[in-house]
Fold these 3 entries.
Entry 1:
Amino acid sequence: QVQLVESGGGLVQPGGSLRLSCVASGSIFSIGAMGWYRQVPGKQRELVAAITSGGNTNVVDSVKGRFTISRDNAKNTVNLQMKSLKPEDTAVYYCNAHIGILRIDVVEESEYWGQGTQVTVSS
């Protein structure tokens, strides 16, 4: 019923920029925190950046100053602007959102994930 669809990944040279977008769709009553995670083979998925419904952001130290997270509540989207990309940023990036669905008279909140989009930083 709820889907998160990412876009914007690809191949970029070191120092380049990419913008990831994620759109949530379906029977959505509310959206809480949204975020971006990344994962490389053999390692755990790690948080990159998160943003609350009120716009408060949290960005991990390794990307601070280079990545910016933003959201458009009217369009149910979250974006990740990435600049000054490094080879170590190469990973599959996943969109995450806490979404509430109205079940008769109760809002049931669950965590949802996108399918992932590959970001490769290489010359």
Entry 2:
Amino acid sequence: QVKLVESGGGSVQSGGSLRLSCAASGYTYFIYCMAWFRQAPGKEREGVASINIEGSTDYADFVKGRFTISQDNAKKTLYLQMNSLKPEDTAMYYCASADFCSGSLRAADFGDWGQGTQVTVSS
């Protein structure tokens, strides 16, 4: 089993930046793809960005040009640099892992999840 622990969330004003981290431990050998998802109150969980072990990335249209996903394979850590944050980015952000990347950012493709870290953007 893979354990994922997110950190770095917080409260910022519109236009600000945050960097989320996700530390992976356990049976990380089989991880091929990692991703960030988010879920706002009353809304479904949606994919934000994914990255595979070779470094190929996919982004949701609503974060392209603002968010950057990256990873440090040696540290087994996933990152999400979020710039130009908007109030609509307010959500719980989750890290997830899978043994493949479909490129479609579907939550159903990911089997292991972290507990989430809250991001709140005020106007």
Entry 3:
Amino acid sequence: QVQLVESGGGLVHPGGSLTLSCTASGRIITISAMGWYRQAPGDRRELVATITSGGDTNYADSVKGRFTISRDNTGKTVYLQMNNLKPEDTTVYYCNADLVYSEGGTFVATKDSWGQGTQVTVSS
């Protein structure tokens, strides 16, 4: 099995910064991409940013120029540096991984590995 553990959420004033972290663990064979999504109550989960194993990045228009996604050398930890935060950034942020892991002697490919979510609140 695979686990994604997030950290770094919290309360920040408008214009402030936060950095989210997510580390994947388990019987992971390869990770093709990792990313951050967010979901407000009653809304669909939306993409915030993704990064591939090759380092290609993709951002939602609403966060371009303010958020930066990066990963460590192991490829199993992804970060989201969030600057100039706005009240509309307030919601739960989820980490996602597109990966292959081993289970019972077989390889399993999944795009549906998710963390437990971390709350980001931007308020004065």
